[in-house]
User: Fold this.
Amino acid sequence: MDKPTVLIVDDEPVNLSLLTELLRADYRVRAASSGRHALKAAASSPFPDLILLDVMMPEIDGYSVLKTLRARPDTRDIPVIFLTALSDAVDEERGLECGANDYITKPIKPAVLRARVRTQLDVKRARDFLQNKNDYLEAEIARRMLDHEIAQQVGIRALAHLAETRDPETGNHILRTQVYVRLLAEKLGDHPRFASQLTPANIELLTKSAPLHDIGKVGIPDAILLKPGPLTEDEWQIMKTHARLGFDAIERAEADVERPVPFLILAKEIARWHHEKWDGSGYPDGLAGDDIPVSARIMAVADVFDAMTSPRVYKPALPMTEARDFIGDARGRHFDPDVTDAFMAVYDEFARIAHRHSDAEPPPP
Assistant:
């Protein structure tokens, strides 16, 4: 194990020689004959584990040196022991107030010097151990949180793709709608109506939740889900149950954990209410206006745009401008007016996303 490094700072060569002789058997000793040299030495290798600092020096005194050491990130934690011929209690108090770890008056008593140096190095060693331990624990927590985040995202995608396997032509629908939702939420984040809900943290949760909006389709029979033509009224009533089925499935999963999971709360909102309409004519509960959760209002625009501009077994993809005009015309009826306005403002980015993540052939412009 390497010896600790002690930097001795004193403008008197005799003092430097004496202190070096007293300490070199147990420590690697470096010397500086001025405050300027001390500051340079403190920031160069081998970095000192402890500094013995004379107070009364020309040009830059010990107080000024210590103030600079404490102000620099690379030297602020180095323990400093003041060495001085000033024995007045006021001088000692000033030294300690400046940030010195200890204060030794001259003439130096060898046994006292060695004991004080050893004590400060022991304290530093313990502090460094705890800091390293804390750094390790913080890194381990960060790693586990990342692992948890990745596992959570994989789980969400797996569930979403499970629904997708029942409706194989949806392709990149999950990815596109997730990006659309983030884009709309970020656009609305500064809006007075939404700022309190669409914080950066909640936007992350909302984006994470979006892929589960159609999880309930797992419960819809293939004969209805994959029917190439129009649905009968009875079939349509069954199709509409996917909103409630998705909500119930997520709620049952949520019941298996000990505390609420924020993104699952949003996932339930999106799954159940993304087919509600601003005027109350949607399903499954006929909610209207602000009674529809913000998450579902945002998801509604993203989902409709993607459904219209993507091919399905029962229809070809429509031109993106037609989907844009449909959403604009439905402002205040199907969609929240402010969410519609946000969509119109970022429509060009929607179009770029649709092309970038198209299923096969890009949707018509």
Q: What stands out?
A: The beta strands are 5-9, 28-32, 50-54, 80-84, 102-105. The chain has a mean pLDDT of 87. The chain has two domains: 5-137, 167-356.
